[in-house]
Amino acid sequence: MTGNQREMERKNRKSRKDRKNKIIAWVVIAVIILVLAIMKICEININSVKDHFTDSNGNFTLTQGVVDNNFPYNLDSSQGVVMKNVNGKLCALTPTGFSVINSKNAEEEYAFSHGYLNPLLKNSGIYTLLYDQGAKQMRLDDTSGNVYQHSIDSNILCADVSKNGNVAYSATSDEKKCIVSVINKSVKQKFECAVSYGYVVDVSINDAGNKLAFVAVNSENARLKSKLFVYTVGVDEPKAEIDLPEGNIIDIEYSSDSIYVVGESYIGVVNNGKKYKSVFDSKTVNTVSFTYTPSNYLVLVYNEFNNSTENTIVKIKPNGRFGKSASISGNIKSVSASSSVVSVLTTNEIVSFSLGNMKEKSRVETDDSVKSICRMGSDVFIHRQSLIDEINTADK
User: Fold this and answer.
1) Residue 396: what pLDDT?
2) Do the Cβ atoms of 342 and 375 come closer than 8 Å?
3) Cα–Cα separations (whole angstroms), residue 46 to 52, 62, 99, 111, 152
4) Rounded CA separation 308/329 (Å)
5) What does pTM read for this prediction?
6) Is there a cis peptide before residue 72, judged by omega within 30 degrees of 0?
């Protein structure tokens, strides 16, 4: 073969290679245009696609989230996300929407946009109550659809829902400081009382929807005083009025016939709706975080003073007793419990303990992108960026 022939053959090979590369490039461009067109027609948010392939450090990766159960699940927001276990379904509240997600395959089973400015979520049994705190709207849903949407005449302060769908709520009043009402699934009023003592900051209704408790707060000598009121739904006179210890109230919660009282610097229980029993006296603890098990046992994380990173975790029974405790170091970001295990999210790890003996079951490293966790049985779900993902804790 002469030199000219070799040169001509080389040019022909280069020309064929260039044509092949151009064809491949045009095919890729055509596919991208087609995908973008489909996304435009279907109104798919390209940011959610980007998030699906973004790791916890914000780096793009084609392997991120490719798991057998189809997680991660894409959210419409990265901030203000609340995850809840609602009757075995994973539910997610964002500033604009609410979703019911199958925890086994990440399929969305029910979703809606709420349009609330300050949405707060309560749940019991199959029901979720979503209300716009400081406004007039609320809605009751079960895990498959809407039960009702309801608007009242005044602004809602706090609310709760029972397992039978009864809803208790407190709202502002022109005549008194507050009113507290109970309505059923048909939005028929079952109970109402006016509260003149102070503003109602928290309300709880029991599983059966026939017992009600709320805390009202007023100011006396430049100090806040809190009083717990206990009612039987349908009975005008209170069953009990209980002065609570000094300090800010965080939460009250029914557990059978008992009521947990979680303060910023104290913990107590009310048995049989009448007598307050101190678990931790006022100013003896600093409540860091807490959660309830599916059977409504209180799981508390506390330390001795603000900004301490040496914490204690303990399960408290409705009678006020508790057994063994465990120590955990770090800044606590989130706590979530199943019937037998509690998981605690710190800045850089998720630590799980048995609720029976408080022995450590697992420890998994995370990073600061994880904002909160939700434990459901043996599964732990994490919220990071605009995703909900599942993490394997490999409990012992």
Assistant:
1) 75
2) yes
3) 10, 15, 20, 20, 39
4) 9
5) 0.82
6) yes
